[in-house]
TrEMBL record:
UniProt KW keywords: Amino-acid transport, Signal, Transport
Origin species: Alloalcanivorax marinus
Protein name, as recorded: Branched-chain amino acid ABC transporter substrate-binding protein
PANTHER family: LEUCINE-SPECIFIC-BINDING PROTEIN, PERIPLASMIC BINDING PROTEIN OF ABC TRANSPORTER FOR NATURAL AMINO ACIDS
Gene Ontology biological process terms from the UniProt entry: amino acid transport
Family: Belongs to the leucine-binding protein family.
InterPro entries per record: BCAA_transport, Leu-bd, Leu_Ile_Val-bd, Peripla_BP_I
Superkingdom to which the source organism belongs: Bacteria
One Pfam family in the UniProt entry: Peripla_BP_6
Signal peptide: 1-22
Residue span, Leucine-binding protein domain: 27-371
Record keyword Transmembrane present: no
Amino acid sequence: MLKAVFKLFAVSLCLLSGLARAAEAEPVRFALIDPLTGPMSVVGQPALAQLQFTAERLNKEGGMDGHPIEIVGYDNKINPQESLVQLQKAIDDGIRYIIQGNGSSVGSALLSAINKHNQRNPDDRVLYLNYAAIEPSFTNERCSFWHFRFDAHVDMKMNMLTDWIAENPDFKKVFLINQDYSFGHTVSESAMRMLKEKRPDIEIVGNTFHPLGKVKDFSPYISKIKSSGADVVITGNWGQDINLLIKSAAEYGVDVPFLTYYGSTPGTITQVGDKGVDRVYLIAEYHGDFTDPEIAERQVALYKEKGWDYYPRVAAMLEMMKAAGDKAGSIEPLAVAKTLEGLEYDAAAGHLTMRAEDHQLQMPLYLSVLKDNMKHGAEGTDYNFHQIARFDADQATLPTTCRMRRPD
């Protein structure tokens, strides 16, 4: 009994010591470059809230190598050129960790700019942490030592979606609707290629693109879907574009499954309610059946404190950065990047590995469908996504064409 008391006392002293060091040290700052105003802030603001919420928790655990983590938001208005302006502001402000997720067009611009900056400034390097820009080339032919992706890319998710479709004989006609930029076209191309390989009998009855973040009325697109006779829809839409698409489909009685990449975008659940039950599907690294009570508590706490739902992959990204910094004994980007390569981590949704070969996170994926009367509802409702299929990390992984150039 006495040994147990001393052990508890020692652990408490270590925690207090870590907190004291974190309080005294200079903060390690992360810049979030995402849409924080305008219609697409529906995805940027939740990410900012999640990062701040997670940073508060990690700082209580000693921060990153003893340094408190600080999150600073930079509004890019979902514009690539504005993103480069905000990147330079962040660098001028002394920030060396850049976080971005919304918009592969933005991600592309940041990737190129950060590579150039690091080549020209070897003593002032910057690391790009990508939590949602899932254009496959970023960890294939355009892979970079200075870029780490914490989300499964388009082909990884589509591979699992099309496996599931291929096993369902009721699906014979597929309609594709996506945003008209690089990501949307990649989703469309990936779907057509994989469906042709796995179910050549399936007919693509529509392949439509629309402007990113500019459509206010989706009824003309819903009319196309309805008249096509599609029995399933695949979409990579995100932000207000998924909210309005699903809402319009519900209003016009298009009662077919919508297989989505981002059907959990804040606002979608509250807007569709009952009409989305058993109809809105999600392929992601998580689902609403929280089996870990601690994660369920965080879901409730984040919504209560910030008004947004829990983003497990955003939390896992910051947790892995802390783990890498602690292991490296440094907050310097090069040292942290070298430690992050190959790092394994047990997160809420399963075992994660940051593949050293291309800096693409390897993770389990889940297919889920919107249900009512869920134990842990989203957006303050009783609705959330119920797991219907789990794909282990080794199932979700795909080979890479990356030929990584590493700094000396």
